Amino acid sequence: MAHNQEMLEHHSERWGDKLRVIGISVDKSPEPVVKHVKAKKWEKVEHFLQAGSSCSEDYSVQGVPRVVLVDSEGNIAYNGHPTAINLEENIETLLKGGKLGEAQEGEDQKDQGEGP
After folding, report:
1. Which of 14, 24, 65, 97 is the most buried (most CB within 10 A)?
2. Looking at the chain, which runs of residues are DSSP E strands?
């Protein structure tokens, strides 16, 4: 999350409202998440609690951290560990309307089909 916050701060002028970074917590209740997010000042990242959601199953999340990049057409462009890609470069490519090459997909990516 720290990298996401820094990345959003650094690119905020250029990326503006064209990008949403959403953190989904697997905690059982919101209190520890809210406390941690406030203490770290991670206000540029949107935070949600997974409780009761099927998002882990929907996006084949098998561990954390996990990054799912969705292109402008709603298709999953990448689903995998954030260190397996150059996240900022891939975001730039997608914001310009480009596609990510197969070489940049995570090794553990399954056939994800189209996004929501």
Report:
1. 24
2. 22-25, 46-49, 67-70, 76-80
The CB density around residue 91, as the number of other CB atoms within 10 Å, is 21
CA angle 79, 40, 47 (to 5 degrees): 45
CA distances from 107 to 5, 79, 100, 116 (A): 26, 9, 14, 22
Question: How do residues 38-85 score in pLDDT, each as one tens digit?
Answer: 999 999 999 888 888 888 888 888 788 889 999 989 999 999 988 999
CATH 3.40.50.2000 fits 2-98, yes or no: no
Query: Do the Cβ atoms of 8 and 44 come closer than 8 Å?
Result: yes
Give residue 25's pLDDT band: very low, low, confident or very high (50, 70, 90).
confident
Q: Could you give the 3-state DSSP secondary structure of residue 74? A: coil
Helices (H), the chain: 2-15, 30-40, 55-58, 87-95
What amino acid is encoded at 79 in this protein?
A: N
Distance between CA 116 and CA 110 in Å, rounded?
16
Q: Where are the domains of the chain?
A: 2-98
